[in-house]
Amino acid sequence: MQVSIAFLLRTKSRIIVSMRNYKQFLSLILLLGTLIYGGQQAIAQAFSLGAGDVIRITVYGQPDLATTSRIAETGKINFPLIGDVTIGGLSTAQAERNIAKLLNDRGLVRNAQVSIFLEQRRQTLTNSVTILGQVARPGKYSLQEVSGEGVQTLIDLLAIAGGTNANAADYLIVVKKEGDGHKRIRVDLVALLREGELKYNYSLGGGDVVLVPEMEVFYIYGQVEKPGRYRLEPDMTVMHALSVASGVTDRGSEKGLLLKRRGKGGMKSSGAGLTDKLQAGDVIYVKEGLF
Fold first, then answer.
1. pTM of the shown model
2. What is the Cβ-side half-sphere exposure of residue 75, based on CA atoms within 13 angstroms?
3. 2-53: per-residue pLDDT in tens?
4. DSSP string, 66-118
5. Which of 252, 250, 267 has the alpha carbon at shortest distance from 283?
6. Residue 90: which of 59, 118, 125, 126 has the closest Cα?
7. Quick check: 210 and 168 in contact, CB under 8 A?
8. Sign of CA dihedral 87, 91, 92, 98
9. How many CB atoms lie within 10 A of CB 58?
10. Where are the alpha helices (DSSP H) in the chain?
């Protein structure tokens, strides 16, 4: 097969051009990476440190001087061997130079090389919500953790916290800051989660606290089929409690009901009727019938 010299020269030229384009492409990628990294470093250095920020400080070759500290409202931190150092209002680079200078000037570390890492900004503390109590994963959650739009509502927060557990009450409390005090909002979880009443799906803001208490219970013992501890439902009566415990045994009597309830002076006992409403912590005792 014959191949002309002109064809070979054209093919070689195309390969050379392609290789040059590939090298230019690689150079462009490396340049963009350098610019992005440098830009991120520049942005990090440009932000000034402030009260409430948590920083981690290391000194090269001096592991004993490594420390993590929260900047006080005065803008100061306490650094080993030096004591109080004012770094509030400085960039991380400026703070690094100041601490290194103090270590050098006092003869503590020669040619000190100090690095400061910003572990947590105060903004993240105020831009978060806390959920405590009877949920799968209680804790503090960022308002930007779920999606680009962030945690915005109670349902968002309950979802990221893994939902309520078996011991949770049928309600929760949202504590919101209002002026110099706090506003408490009681939310019906049954209406919100089971019945889809979205009017209870309150919006959340930074610093809000959500409390999911343990369920309210009552106790029933004596001549019932299934004595024990049970969830107290809204407007629950003694008759309802007996049915939850699978009824009275053949040896028991609905006329021999004793109700123990905690009062100011401790537990008090009294007779109970079937239509009496129960309160949290009540103890029902079903006596043995007389035959």
1. 0.51
2. 10
3. 555 554 445 545 544 454 565 565 565 555 555 444 444 444 444 678 877 8
4. -EEEEPPTTSEEEETTTEEEE-TTSBHHHHHHHHHHHHHHTTSSTT--EEEEE
5. 267
6. 118
7. no
8. negative
9. 16
10. 5-46, 92-105, 122-126, 154-160, 189, 238-244
Distance CA 245, CA 217 (A): 13
User: Tokens in use for 144?
Assistant: 């930007």
196 touches 156 (CB < 8 A): no
Q: How many independent structural domains does the chain possess?
A: 4
Whole-number Å distance between alpha carbons of 219 and 226: 11
Nearest to 284 by CA among 223, 231, 212: 223
Measured distance between the N- and C-terminal CA atoms of the chain, rounded to whole angstroms: 119
CB 210 within 8 A of CB 157: yes
What the block records as the tokens of 151 is: 């945690």
Helix 92-105 crosses helix 5-46 at what angle (to 10 degrees)? 70
The pair of structure tokens assigned to 78 is 């306490």
Same domain, 205 and 140: yes
Residue-wise pLDDT tens digits, 132-151: 999 998 988 877 644 455 67
Residue 6 lies in a domain: yes
Q: What is the 3-state secondary structure (H, E, C) of 53-66?
A: CEEEEEECCCHHHC
CATH number of the structural domain spanning residue 71: 3.30.1950.10
Which 3 state secondary structure label does DSSP give 233? coil
For the beta carbon of residue 11, count every other beta carbon within 10 angstroms: 11
Domain that holds residue 102: 54-123
How far are the Cα atoms of 33, 46, 144 from residue 247, in angstroms, in the given order? 74, 72, 51
Is 151 inside any structural domain? yes
